[in-house]
Design goal:
single chain, mainly alpha
Amino acid sequence: MAGRTVTVGEVVLGRVRAQAEVLAGLDAAVRADEPDAVHRMRVACRRLRSAFRTYRRLLAPAATDELVAELRWLAAALGRARDREVLRERLAARARELPAECGPERVAAELERWGRTEYRRVWPEVVAAVDSPRRKALADGLAALLADPPLRGRAGRAAGPELARVAAREQRRTAERVRAALADDEGEGRAEARDQALHEARKAAKRARYAGETAVPVAGRAAERYVERMKAVQEVLGEHQDAVVAATALRDQAGASAEPFGYGVLYGQELAAAERARLALPEVWARAAREELARFS
């Protein structure tokens, strides 16, 4: 992109075009339930939705509202299967590491069966979504937007300063969520509220990471460093969320198990994993919170 001043509108449309192509190329793979296909399609939905929300001021008012809603719908339809797949893999792997007295192989086999049953139960939702008129309308809507982008005047500004400004804004937004989560003491009846606050911080870090990814073609290594730091925040918060979800699933399934003791040990391990992630957050965030990280210069 050297040789002339690249506009922020060009960069954002390039991001949208690339992710729309990823999305369009995955329908057959998802139908065939190929490894990682559902995950990749879900991520493409998230990146597109994040681009439309993060850079909405570059586009005509309400121009992408319907697309954002439909991307949310598709990601949710994919997510129910993907979340069960991830949960099954996590719990079965950890079950196999249990001490012998916990019946590790029996617990792992139970969790594998439960996870596969849950996956099969929601899989028809994925196929129905991919084959639906809504999915085709979403593809058509993305193609129409790219064919005639509803850009506003500010989209003509130089990309570098605008992308850095947006990255700084997303960094501040993430900071607010992280501070709120860390300030939310557990207390009596507060664990659920704290966990939700940490989940909201994770979503903010992910959106900031995607803003950094958008800037990489222009800002290079500086934007890549920003992405790395925000990804680290997202990952530690993702580990917290995964552990909370896993603990809830274990609690709900323990009563039907032939090895309830093993489930109890796993439950304790997941609670400990969630706490370790929460305690690791301040240090990880400190590296992502530096103001110079978003300057891209």
